[in-house]
Amino acid sequence: MKCIRFVSIIIVVLMMSLTCFGSEKLSYNDEIKVYINNNEINLDMYPFIEDNRTMVPMRGIFEALDADVDWDENNQTVIATKNNITISVTINSDIMIKNKESIKLDVPARLVDDCRTYVPLRAVSEALGCMVRWDDEYSIVDIIDDSNLPDKWHVGDISCDEWFGYYYFNREDMPENEYGYFSDCSKFSDGLAAASQSNKYSSKKYYGYINEYGYFVIPDIYTEAGDFQNGIAIVKSDFYPYPYRINTKGECVDNIELKKNNEANNNLEVFEDKGLYGYKDTDGNIVIEASYTEANNFSDGLALVKSRDVICTGTDRFDGYGYINVKGELVIPFEYYYMSTDFKDGSACVYDTVDNVFRAWYIDKSGNKMFGDKTFVSGNNFSEGLAVVQTKGNLPRPLFASFDEKDEFTYINKSGEYATENRYDYAESFVNGRAKVVIDGKERYINNKFQFID
Predict the structure, then answer these.
(1) Which of 40, 159, 249, 410 is 20 to 30 A from 174, alpha carbon to alpha carbon?
(2) Parallel, antiparallel, or unpaired for β 140-144 and 33-36?
């Protein structure tokens, strides 16, 4: 009996040796760093990359995540438990089990070198309820473990510096990193809040969504970002002129509408060549030669571009912008300033000087001025039938700001008439029937009847 048991052990050892050493030579990467809640963890063996997935020692990562780990020798399966989540990963299997749910892996767990078990870092971390980000520039895997973070941030934790206009979370142990300040931040809904790190005076802010610990979980790529309701938020971005819906993972749920927009604009994309910009189709064919010093994506069939032939000096270096169609034909001359907006629903807000004063007005797709001689300090595209306009104050950029007049914003309808007698210190476009305004220094929300709803 002892002889049989000894022979069985020898066979198991030999099989494991073949499994461990029969694979190709792996390339470990000592430059990859793994952080959990901003603290670097030291793994006893280096990670390696397989099929663009970071593989790490199983026991080291699970212990760092405070998960209990078991090893099922008979089935060659790792079992990890954290809080009420249990996952099991079997060597060389592309299926991971999470609380009886099967999840397909891009890369299976495997035994390497000295029979150490390696698991795909992102897959197992996310399965245990963590958020994972990859910093390509510094080769850092950043894991956020909600269960081990301090108290969550809420809207009451937001402060504002009146000079710089940056909102920030004033928790004492907040690390001083890129997530420490925001130029704008909305209330939390469905665990996410729209936030921007764009300069307060930028003519266009970009928004993403942070979780309740201040980390961007959806990138700041949107020009407008609404609150989440039942897992859906309405956003706008540079590559599509109309609002569309995303889920809490940042995935577009209006793909058909996006496809229609791309087709309407001949599926053209901006490309750069030696400092000049032109347009290619999705197959990479050049449709419009690179001849512009700046170029926006097409929207509503037209694109805002800057001519390389306009030679400007002083503050005039910001002019020389016009609009081209999808054939590359100039349909609106190079006579406007860079703050001009893309077209949406047949109109755009453009900027030029009137008696040496910067003013904004609306034009149609033929370049004709809309709403008579009515001009504004600044203006946005129409959204849900209304457009934000600034009627007093200074252009929202340090270059033009003298802070000698209080800003005043309101809304116009598509006839160019003021839609309300209300005037605000600041106002944003309507998204999903509501808009953010500031009045008497206090941030509020209004509905499309201009009634406060918060």
Answers:
(1) 249
(2) parallel
Q: Does residue 282 have a pLDDT over 50? A: yes
Place of tokens 């989540």: 85
Has residue 83 been placed in a domain? Answer: yes
What would the DSSP string read from start to end of 121-188?
HHHHHHHTT-EEEEETTTTEEEEE-GGGS-SPP-GGGEEE-TTT--EEE--TT--SSTTSEESEE---
Q: State the Cα–Cα distance between residues 208 and 202, nearest whole angstrom.
A: 16
Domain that holds residue 70: 2-148
For 79, other C-beta atoms within 10 Å of its C-beta total: 18
- With b meaning 16 or more CB within 10 Å and e meaning fewer, what string describes 343-358? bbebbbbbbeeeeeeb
Is the CA virtual torsion 155, 161, 165, 166 positive or negative? negative
**Domain containing residue 36: CATH number:** 3.30.457.10
Any domain includes 365: no
pLDDT 10s digits, 215-241: 788 888 888 888 787 678 888 887 766
